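Thread title: Can someone regenerate the structure for this chain?

I was given the following input by a collaborator and told the matching structure tokens would be attached. They weren't. Posting the sequence so someone can regenerate them.
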Amino acid sequence: MGTMTTNEVRSQLIKQWYLMRYDIAVVLMMNDKYQEAIDLLHGSKLKTQFPETYLLLGDCMLKLGRPESALRMYLECRTRTRESWGKVEHKKISLTKRIAGLLNHQTGHYIDARRYKEGINISKTVVQLLEDDVDDLTKCGTLRGEAYINMSRSYYQRDITNSNMLDYSHRTAADGLRFARGNDHGALYGALFGDKPLESVLDKYATKRQLPFSVKMLIQYS
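Best answer:
Regenerated them for you:
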């Protein structure tokens, strides 16, 4: 152990013991023994040692058909890893995709239940989550697009009798279709835009993308 102190040796041995428990849980999950993995993870102090434990718990719960419980685990993992994963982009993206995917799915249920206000709020949460947690949003384009489309569906169903309010639905649908082309939940495109070509819809309604400063300068002086 070199010049390590007794306390340092003890700390390393404890960490190795927890890592072994974590590895056993991973093996259980790979063998479709999801509840056994959950019991092992809950029955130890792994969660205090490794925040990634919450991610594994969420994956197991999702496999067992418990999406709400899985979402709680993913959100807890996000809270506990914000600093430690600060520069580990692929880990952040992997977790964010799980959270956004579940929230988008949840929004669909709210819309079907005519709970449009909640559908709008959750969709906005997904968009904000992606903007906060992902540096390169192109890596989550489809999830972002689905959130905007869900938002548009909620606005459309809420305001269908008030044509003056449908502008929200047009704009959010266009933003969604820009990121997730081909995703047309509930024939939304036809209801909003009829047979207009997609490019003309995007030109008219989608949020105009801002060019990077360097590109603006290049255009100005070229």
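The chain has a mean pLDDT of 86.
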